[in-house]
Specification:
The structure holds two protein chains of two kinds. By secondary structure, chain A is mainly alpha-helical. Helices cover 80% and strands 0% of the residues of chain A. Chain A folds into two domains: 39 residues; 135 residues, no CATH class. Chain A is globular, with a radius of gyration of 21 Å. Chain B has one domain. Chain B is 80% helix and 0% strand. The longest helix of chain B has 39 residues. The chains are: A mainly alpha, B mainly alpha.
């Protein structure tokens, strides 16, 4: 199953491009000229998101560097120990919404400390594997079209992140312990 | 909202940095991340250009129309404002498919294309529309069939059965998606009442 999925992941992009170009030729579209027309907008979008991404990544980067996540972990520790959950998972839970590379970094650390087949590592894997970096997605997607008022998108994203963590923890508790 | 969250991150970082004695790291991270943000933005230009070009071919050949038809019932429920915008529907379909297959590099350009189409229907250009909020909620909840990078790390450390996490990840992602959609639809009702 995972081999099939891996094959699809690897080959999907060239196959998709091939199919679209073939269909274009079949419909007598001047594919090269049309491609260039569309591709011209790529630069504008890339440049347009710079201010949004700078604002977001600097704020998140400062927050991470300050040791705030360790502090939060320290504060929440008694609560989690009472619920029988490893406190090592707290920084991961918060990092998930903030930074994709940061999340993978913490996950690698947990996996190498506790071993790749330990219940904590598997729980962390489910937490990491079932999420997307909310703040990055918000900055890039809204930035590309110049939107600064995010309305309920941000709360909905964070509520979903929180729900995802709780569900991942509960499910892992049932499956891996 | 974003004003407070953004300021909150920065002020908390300064305050906590002073208390923990890590203010030097905080100071260093300002410059590092400003640079990183530009690098990431610029690295998007190539794949953006590629996929926008390919999408343009699909539009000219009528393929986007076929894609849009595939998920029309779902679109009607999730994005009622986009009923007539076939380009947006196609881009949303492609974004969801690419996300599900774990093709992050392709999912972002399709997603941004979808945002651009949604912006055309948006009466207030600096404020997110209902469709945009729904679309972002779906994207931030992360619809992915196989968490490739996580499995990669597990394999690298010699895990005996790394694919064991696929099924739980799927279940969690699926439930999170439902919660994200319900939350966004529920908040949308509240916020439109306030505007009246």
């Amino acid at each position: 199953m995972s081999e099939i999925m891996a094959f699809i992941s690897i080959s999907a992009i060239p196959i998709l491009i091939g199919l679209i170009i073939t269909h274009g030729l079949y419909q007598k579209v001047p594919v090269y000229e049309v491609f260039i027309q569309g591709a011209k907008q790529g630069f504008t979008i890339g440049v347009k998101i710079i201010p949004y991404l700078v604002a977001m990544m600097v704020a998140v980067g400062m927050f991470r560097a300050s040791g705030a996540l360790d502090l939060i972990a320290e504060v929440l520790k008694p609560l989690l120990i009472a619920c029988n959950i490893s406190p090592d998972l707290i920084p991961l839970a918060f990092m998930r919404s903030l930074s994709g590379s940061g999340t993978l970094g913490i996950f690698s650390e947990i996996a190498s400390i506790h071993g790749p087949d330990s219940p904590i590592t598997k729980t962390a894997a489910v937490m990491t594997g079932s999420s997307e970096t909310t703040f990055y997605v918000l900055a890039v997607y809204f930035g590309s079209i110049g939107i600064t008022k995010y309305r309920h998108a941000i709360i909905a994203g964070l509520i979903a992140d929180f729900a995802g963590i709780v569900i991942a923890l509960c499910l892992s508790k049932i499956l891996f312990y | 909202m974003m004003n407070y969250i953004w300021a909150g991150f920065i002020l908390a970082a300064i305050l906590i940095g002073c208390c923990t004695g890590q203010i030097a790291d905080v100071s260093h991270s300002v410059l590092t991340y400003a640079g990183k943000a530009v690098q990431i933005s610029l690295s998007l230009i190539g794949i953006m250009a590629l996929w926008l070009g390919v999408m343009k071919i699909a539009e000219a050949s009528g393929l986007t129309c076929i894609f849009a038809k595939l998920i029309r019932p779902l679109i009607r429920f999730l994005f009622p404002d986009l009923k007539k915008n076939e380009k947006a529907q196609a881009a949303i379909t492609m974004n969801m498919t690419a996300n599900a297959l774990g093709l992050a590099n392709a999912a972002t350009p399709f997603g941004l294309k979808a945002m651009k189409e949604m912006q055309k229907e948006n009466p207030k250009k600096d404020t997110a529309s209902n469709s945009m909020c729904t679309f972002l909620a779906i994207n931030t909840a992360g619809l992915q069939l196989i968490p490739v990078s996580v499995i990669g790390i597990l394999v690298g450390l010699g895990s005996k059965n790394p694919s064991e996490i696929i099924a739980p990840c799927l279940l969690v992602t699926f439930l999170t998606q439902i919660i994200a959609i319900l939350t966004v639809k529920w908040l949308q009702k509240g916020s439109s009442k306030c505007q009246k």
